[in-house]
Structure formats: structure tokens, C-alpha cells
Design goal:
The complex is a heterodimer. By secondary structure, chain A is mainly α. Chain A is built from 19 helices and no strands. In chain A, helix 7 crosses helix 8. Chain A is globular, with a radius of gyration of 22 Å. Chain B is mostly helical. Helix content of chain B is about 70%, strand content about 5%. In chain B, strand 1 and strand 2 form a beta hairpin. The chains are: A mainly alpha, B mainly alpha. At the A-B interface, helix 5, helix 9, helix 10 and helix 12 of A face helix 1, strand 2 and helix 2 of B.
């Protein structure tokens, strides 16, 4: 059996298990939209936690972060990882918890539906859907690109980027279409376990082959001492550092595919427990990912630009056998699919429930939702095969876009006077600030575009609320 | 159930600790050539791990105290 056959067999087994789980979940689904899109709001701690981690972790972490650490060194950990250990649980508490309560009270299934009902304006749901769509598609492209790069590396070019991208979209489409939210959450438990465990195991296996963690780190210090520095320059200057910390902490709760997972929680205790477990999962994953990038400079010293996105699969291929390579590919696929399925399902649920006015009945909604999944997969594939930029660059733009929704998400749940006009102004001004600073701002600006977007959106939200406060019969927005 | 005054103190303490951690996040450590803590950890990475331990404790405090208080307040 050739090395590639071993890798292929492991991947096929993984696909078969995921499809079987999706089908089994599909049989458990009742024929209601709430059950299909939210698993009947019955998800408990373990599944919820794994679904949140699975949704949160994408090729941005498994491939983009090693690729970035390859060039910038261990400062990437402080810049990206540590702050989210606090930021994500805090944002779940400040935004996710009241949103979960409000979605239950209003019977909202999607984030766009929540805000449309909260502000009593259907068009507001369309606006939110538009922002989610614009920034989620590029993020989906990063996921598919990650798979293309990994398959290309492990197959030695035998499987093209285009074929790999199409394959992953097809499998994800199948189990997401059949299983709905329940299917994606069940598969996320398997997928999260695979990439969490494998990244730790691979870390120690590669270190072992290289003579141990300490000798490898000493070798890096000797060969590339600059990678151990976190100099006050470039992206590590205080302004970009602080603004990126703000952006990466806040964007996760603004992912529509994360918020909808939170809506699916059975009770508050499950949300609390997920917050408590979050830091451990982040540390398990991020330390190996950053060090893979740093170690990669020893074995592959000449990777330029976005070629460094392949450093994780390259390290596995160099140091481990075909079985581990198969597991590595399965773990990358798991990270991709656990994010991609949630993104596809969430966008399709928002389209069918919030945008298309004349959809009547649960069965028609589910049918349209499945049809939109196919269209979405096709759009993602067409963009991904053009390979527009590095995984980190695309994800950074996407994350910044999500943050423009944060003032609306927070204030609508926590400030009873916060009005529809203020929310609209906040979203429009935030996005204008993002586009302006991203397109015309100086390269070495004090703050990143995400900070200007957040500042602009927040100021617009506050001033407009003071001028045009909300006047409704029900202004109690924090409870059910 | 804790007294209202104790709630406020705990709440203020939580937000102060959060601000302190956010401020500490802005520190970045320059590498000293010989410094690899425990034989493998560069200075900045070691600092981040200590920071994460503190953040984890704060998350537990948040879910155990602040969250519960809010739940009680919203159900009253």
C-alpha cells in the first residue's frame, strides 16, 4: 500500500463516519424549521462546547497561524491567542447570554430574525443578513483554501486544489443538508476531538523526532533569534496590537454561525460550562500551532509570502509517517468542515426565514434552505479557486467586518433606549469606517481598520440613540 | 444568596481585574538571548501562559458570581 493510499483510506473513513452521523441526526430531526436549524434548542454542555470550539476553529488557526508565526515568530501567540481566552467567554456573557434569552422569548431561530423581531422591522433583518453574507463568504473561502493547500501538499500534487475544494464542499453539503443543526453539532464533537487531540499529539511527535521540545527551541533561538522577539514595530506596535486584540476577541461572538450555536443551548448552565472549558481548548490548540510555524523555519527556511500557509502539512510530511499524515489531513478537514457546515447552515437559515418573504411552512423552508446550501457552495468554490490572498489576510478582513455589528449586538441587548435608527446608523458608519480606513488608510497607521470601524460604529450608535431613543411598549431587553 | 453590597463589591472587583488583565495584555517582552524558561519557553510566551492562567480564573469567577447575580436579577 503506497503512502498516498494510506492517507486516502484514513480520509475516506473519516468522511464515511461524518456522513453516517449526519444521516443519523437527520432521522432524529422533527419536520420543523426550529428543529432543523436549531436542533430544537436542546443542546447540552459537551455537544455545545465542542460545537462552539469546532465552529470557532478553522484553517485560520491550523494553517493561517503557523503560516503567520513562520514569518513573525512567537509574538503571534500573544497577538492572537491569549486575549481570546478572556475575550470569548466575556463576550458570551455580555452579548451571547442576553441574546440567547431574547431569542427564546421571541422565538427567533436566526440572528437576523432576532434583530428583526427585536426592532420590529423585517428590513433590519435583511440588513443584518447582508452584512453577515458579505463577510462570511470570504471566511468560507479561507476554509476551502486551507483544504486545497493541505491536500495538494499531502498528495504531492496528485489531487488538484480545485478537486479538493469541490470534494470538501460536497461532503459538507451532504451531511449538513441531511442532518441540519443536529447533524452539524454531532459531527462537531467528532471533528473537534480529532483536531484538538491530533494537534497536541503531532506537537510531541514532531518534537520527539527533532530531539525534543527544548533542543528544537534552542535551535530556533540560535538560527532565528528574531522569531523570539516581540519588537515594538510593524503589527506588534502598541496600536495595531491593541486594535487587533479587540477585533479578534469581539469577532467570534459576531460570527452568525457562533451566535446560532448559542441559541441552540438548552439552558444557561450549558453556556456557563462552555465558557469555563474554553480556555483549556484554546491553549491546547494555539501553542502547538504557533510553535509549528516557528519550527518550520528550521526545516523549510525559504517559504515566501502565503507559501508559509503550508508549513503545518509540510512539517507533518517531513517528520511523520503516512498514518499520521492521514490523521493530519483528517484533522484539517475536521477543522474546515466544523466551521463550514455551521456557516452554510446559518446563512441558508437566514435566507429562508428572513429574506424570502413568501416561504410558507416548515417543509418549504427546509427545501429552500437545502437549495441555498448548493448555491452557496458553488459561490465559495468559484472564489476559492482564484486563490485571492493568504488565509490570514482574508480572515483578517472578514473578522474586521463582523466587528462592525458588535455595537448593535451589545447595545440592543443591554440598553433599552437603543433604537432601530441607532442600530442602522451604527452598522452603516462602522462599515464605511472599515472600508475607508482599509482602502485609503496609511499602511503604518496607529490603529488597524477594525478599531476605526468599532469606534465609528459605537459613536454613531450612542449619538443616534441620544437623539432618537427607542419608544416601544416593551423596552425590557435583557430578560426573557 | 449574598447581600446586595457584597454583590456590588464582587462586580466591581471583577471589572477591575478584567481591566488590569487587558492592560497587562499590552505588555510585550523583548527576548534575552539566553532566556528560555523551563528550557523551552521564550519570555513572551511564558508571560502569556501566566496571563492565560489568570484569565481562566477570572472566567470561573465570572461564571460563578457575576453570571449568577445577573440571572437572579433578571428573574426577580
Amino acid at each position: 500500500m503506497s503512502d498516498f493510499s494510506v492517507i486516502l483510506t484514513i480520509v475516506c473513513v473519516y468522511f464515511a463516519v461524518v456522513l453516517a452521523i449526519g444521516l443519523a441526526a437527520g432521522r432524529r430531526n422533527a419536520s420543523t424549521a426550529e428543529d432543523y436549524f436549531l436542533a430544537g434548542r436542546s443542546v447540552k454542555t459537551v455537544v455545545l462546547f465542542m460545537a462552539l470550539v469546532g465552529t470557532n476553529i478553522s484553517p485560520f488557526v491550523l494553517m493561517g497561524i503557523p503560516g503567520l508565526a513562520y514569518h513573525r515568530g512567537i509574538g503571534v501567540f500573544g497577538q492572537n491567542a491569549s486575549i481570546i481566552v478572556l475575550g470569548i467567554p466575556l463576550s458570551i456573557y455580555l452579548i451571547g447570554l442576553p441574546s440567547w434569552r431574547r431569542a427564546r422569548a421571541l422565538g427567533a431561530v436566526t440572528p437576523a430574525e432576532l434583530y428583526a423581531k427585536h426592532f420590529e422591522a423585517r428590513w433590519f433583518g435583511w440588513l443584518v443578513f447582508g452584512v453577515y453574507f458579505v463577510f462570511t463568504v470570504p471566511y468560507m473561502v479561507t476554509a476551502v483554501s486551507g483544504v486545497g493547500i493541505a491536500v495538494d501538499t499531502f498528495s504531492g500534487g496528485a489531487v488538484s486544489f480545485e478537486a479538493a475544494a469541490a470534494g470538501i464542499l460536497l461532503v459538507t453539503l451532504l451531511y449538513t443538508g441531511f442532518g441540519g443543526m443536529r447533524g452539524t453539532m454531532w459531527t462537531n464533537v467528532l471533528q473537534g476531538s480529532i483536531f484538538l487531540v491530533f494537534s497536541v499529539v503531532a506537537f510531541f511527535l514532531i518534537a520527539d523526532v527533532r530531539g525534543g521540545v527544548a533542543p528544537t527551541m534552542r535551535e530556533v533561538v540560535s538560527a532565528h533569534p528574531e522569531l523570539m522577539d516581540v519588537p515594538n514595530e510593524g503589527p506588534f506596535r502598541i496600536g495595531p496590537w491593541a486594535s487587533w486584540g479587540l477585533g479578534i476577541s469581539l469577532c467570534v461572538i459576531a460570527f452568525p454561525h457562533m451566535l446560532v450555536r448559542i441559541f441552540a443551548a438548552q439552558d444557561e448552565e450549558s453556556l456557563k460550562n462552555a465558557c469555563r472549558l474554553y480556555p483549556a481548548a484554546m491553549v491546547m490548540l494555539w501553542i502547538p500551532c504557533v510553535l509549528f510555524g516557528v519550527w518550520g523555519t528550521l526545516d523549510f527556511p525559504a517559504l515566501a509570502g502565503r507559501a508559509s500557509d503550508a508549513v503545518f502539512p509540510l512539517l507533518i510530511q517531513r517528520h511523520l509517517g503516512p498514518f499520521a499524515q492521514g490523521l493530519a489531513l483528517a484533522s484539517i478537514l475536521a477543522a474546515v468542515m466544523s466551521t463550514l457546515d455551521a456557516q452554510m447552515l446559518t446563512l441558508s437559515s437566514m435566507l429562508t426565514r428572513d429574506v424570502l418573504r413568501n416561504v410558507r411552512g416548515d417543509r418549504q423552508q427546509i427545501f429552500l434552505g437545502r437549495s441555498f446550501l448548493v448555491v452557496l457552495a458553488a459561490i465559495t468554490w468559484i472564489i476559492a479557486i482564484r486563490k485571492p490572498a493568504s488565509i490570514f489576510s482574508i480572515a483578517a478582513l472578514s473578522f474586521s467586518g463582523y466587528v462592525t455589528l458588535i455595537p448593535t449586538m451589545f447595545l440592543s441587548m443591554r440598553w433599552p433606549s437603543f433604537s432601530r435608527a441607532a442600530a442602522t446608523c451604527s452598522i452603516v458608519v462602522g462599515n464605511l469606517a472599515l472600508v475607508t480606513s482599509h482602502t485609503w488608510g496609511p499602511k503604518d497607521a496607529l490603529l488597524l481598520p477594525v478599531a476605526w470601524a468599532l469606534l465609528g460604529g459605537t459613536m454613531a450608535a450612542v449619538f443616534t440613540t441620544l437623539l432618537f431613543p427607542r419608544r416601544t411598549r416593551d423596552t425590557n431587553t435583557t430578560d426573557g | 444568596m449574598l447581600k446586595r453590597e457584597t454583590h456590588h463589591r464582587l462586580g466591581a472587583g471583577f471589572w477591575l481585574a478584567t481591566l488590569a488583565l487587558a492592560a497587562a495584555h499590552l505588555f510585550r517582552f523583548q527576548h534575552d538571548d539566553s532566556a528560555l524558561y523551563l528550557g523551552w519557553l521564550p519570555a513572551d510566551l511564558a508571560f502569556r501562559i501566566v496571563w492565560i492562567i489568570a484569565a481562566t480564573l477570572l472566567v470561573f469567577a465570572m461564571t460563578s458570581v457575576s453570571w449568577r447575580e445577573e440571572g437572579e436579577a433578571s428573574s426577580e
